[in-house]
Request: fold
Amino acid sequence: MIIKTFPDIKAAWEGIYFSILDDKPGVIDNFNRNIIHSHNNHIIAKSGVMDFDLGEIGLTPTKWTKFTGQYVDVESLHAWVNNSMNVKTYDALWQFKSVPPNFSGQKAVHQWGSCLLGFSFRRQPKPSTLTFFTRAQSIGFSGVADYALCSFVIRKLAERLGVDPSSIKLQIYCPNFILKTVETVHFLHQRGLLEEYTSRGDRIGNSIQYYIDYMNRPEAEIKWRAARRMKKKYENSQADIFRSLPVADLTIKGWHSEVKQNRRLSARDSAKLILAGVGRRVIPETVMEIDNGD
Reply:
């Protein structure tokens, strides 16, 4: 369990990540060789800014676009942000798209339900607060996109309210932080920390070393698809191949089109669109694996 306040979103993510890796007392609720769980977590970031480059963890623009396309209905999110001026002490709710399971493979994608659940926002009392509800976060890789999305939404709320993004607080309720040690190898190498962790000889270090050895097998012997992906990211880090993806530069596909329409809905029409889906565009339903702990 992690219940802690951090200065900003980057510090929050790094604080969660290294609290688990450092095996701090009370943080890890369930440990297996690769899957580590921390349950019943409540995180606060006093500033909604995330000064971070997603290239450090190997997240790509393609992965970001798939993630946002899978979970975010742009039309309703845009209406919700525009309606933020009407929000005072009540929390306004916005829900992510529900992602159905796909049983076409050996294992169902999202077989335990959608990871991302919803945002709520209130302007008062100060500081204004965005709250993020999520079922699970894969802290080592794909779950970091959750934090980038929070930062994007806070930036858009700040633009609408005419305030600095750093003045909006973020709080996160997550019943299950997940850290997969196979996903830590390339990031720790990128930070120059890999040898420090593998040399400790504790359960975390031994787990990381196991997956380094596993990924060093011949390609044909690596049956686990996630390990093959992480092996490539580790090799890119070793070769100093870095593709920059700053959080501050991110946008959501279709957001610019919504801005160009410059719609200002009434509170009633916004509520109908956001909560009831009235007027929402019909979007073809597709399921794309994001491997976000589901």
